Amino acid sequence: MKPLKQIWQTFAGTRVGRSIFRVGLPESNLGRMQAMVSSFVLHMHPAKVHRHSLKFSYTLGLGLISLYLFLILCITGVALMFFYVPSPEHAYNDMKDLEFVVSAGMIARNMHRWSAHLMVLCVFLHMCRVFFTGGYKPPREFNWTVGVGLFVLTLGLSFTGYLLPWDQLAFWAITVGTNIAGYAPVVGKKIQFVLLGGNIVGESSLLRFYVLHVILLPAVAVFLIALHLWRVRKDGGLSRPGEPDVLVQQSETGQLSTSKTYGLMELARGTSPAVGLKPEDEVPAWPHLVFRELLLFLATMAVVMFMSVFWNAPLEGLANPTHPPNPAKAPWYFLGLQELTAYSAFWGGVAVPALLVTALVALPYLDRKRAGVGVWFARERRVAVTIFTICVVAAVVLTVIGTYFRGPNWGWVWPWAASAVTPH
Amino acid sequence: MNKGHSAPAPPATTRVPQPGNGSSRRGFIWLTFGWLASLFALAASGFATVRSLVPNVLYEPSRRFKAGRPTDYPDDTATFIEEVRLFVVRKGNTYRAMSGICPHLGCTVNPAAGKYPFLCPCHGSHFDPNGAVVSGPSPRGLTWHAVSLSKDGRLVIDMDLAVTHDKNLAL
Questions:
Q1: Among candidates A229, A250, A234, which has minimal Cα distance to A147?
Q2: Identity of the residue in B106, B119, B120 whose CB atom sits nearest the CB atom of A175
Q3: Is residue A228 part of a domain?
Q4: What pLDDT, in 10s, does the model give residues B133-156?
Q5: Spatial separation of the C-alpha atoms in residues A313 and A112, rounded to whole Å
Q6: A89 — contact with chain B (CB < 8 Å)?
Q7: Looking at this predicted complex, what is its ipTM?
Q8: Given an 8 Å threshold on Cβ–Cβ distance, is B106 in contact with A322?
Q9: How many structural domains does chain A have?
Q10: Which secondary structure element, helix H or strand E, spans residue B146, and what is its range?
């Protein structure tokens, strides 16, 4: 460790080193804060961070894990693009090539597939975490709606990626999925037609889904993620119990104070920012936050790697438009909806998803009381927590039923029965 | 231009109306025109972008196609034509064509062994011999398509033309 540090310090002390890093390896708290403010990579962090925000038991690291998974997805996705042609003639063969011809190709594809599934899961859990700790309450209402947008976008990214392998699973999952979209009133059929570029899943659908998947949706996601992180900072960091009300009042008057007395980043939003902030509860972000983040990244990477080495992403036979598998299932995160469409296409395809998204967006503007913020399952929020829990449990139960308990002809099967279909 | 202004009015020769200052009639017209033109340009390019994504030509199997000769289909059965997912139903010398695509979520219905002849594997919709829904989530029955005869004596099925189940081609 020591020689490494010496090499680093020698380099940071040279002309070139100083021009790159501005401040050397920090030796004092002042240096630590300068490091955060002067480095491009680190500047999105606050210089100091509240101890409560560092607690793993509060955040479970879910937001960061989602971000890391997105980064892994971008990198593995670009790697996969070198070997993939989005046309019905090539797509499926390219999948086979990735498995049998390209060195480490299968690992890249596995990492991409498992990270995608994990990201859907983590983004959902992150939303649950923010709800159960009251993190959407003022002044963080808008950031919650940005988060809802990111959740929908995550589903969209995963869904568009699902078609690309052009196997039976992909083809019929997208057929079922886009037919669900077709039930939207008035514009449903039109949206389905434009999304597919035709009446059936075909050549143009594959190209459209590819473009959406590799550039359009990721570009929107990058923008929304940046906005989401920026707002976390501007809204005063993570929610925590006993936050100073100055942050809230500021956002309610709708204008930023111009008589700021000092400019230590966004900690200082009002004229008397220090009141109630208890600086003794804060620690420098370097090393306390930065090293936790690195650790979490390593953990995320380890889990994804482990999964990718031991489990291969599924690939069924070449897409056959005339023979659906029995049962034909949508991607697992839409199986709750598909289960509902088995009772009523309107409720599963239109009403329930529309109501859910509307309710999520409206939530922070309806539930404005700032009680129980920063605490898991606060007693003051019993009603809200109960309602949300019921919705989450219903969604999970429906998804589990659709995934594990539905067999041929959408009939009921026990997952341990011989006729059960292996889920993907 | 404001008559109540205390500052001396500028000489008449310099009173060129500035577009966009909103204080003269000409400026107002220019401003309105400018905004309308910009909005129109924006709306038109937005519309063009969206419109370009609606395909004008489809490279899909033709929706109107020639099937086999009438004698190719055994009497009193529903023969499935795989490529177009469609049943040709023959009864004596009458021919009808029924879509095999479930109107619910687009799966292909299978001839079933049970009480009702058609069953969708995805969500278990049952259809009777006329394609009507007997049970299950399908919002409508299976679609019947128009059948005609070509000059060379083959059945022509038009999948863009929906007909009622009792409409048939009698030979």
A1: A229
A2: B106
A3: yes
A4: 988 888 889 999 999 999 998 999
A5: 9
A6: no
A7: 0.74
A8: no
A9: 2
A10: strand B144-149
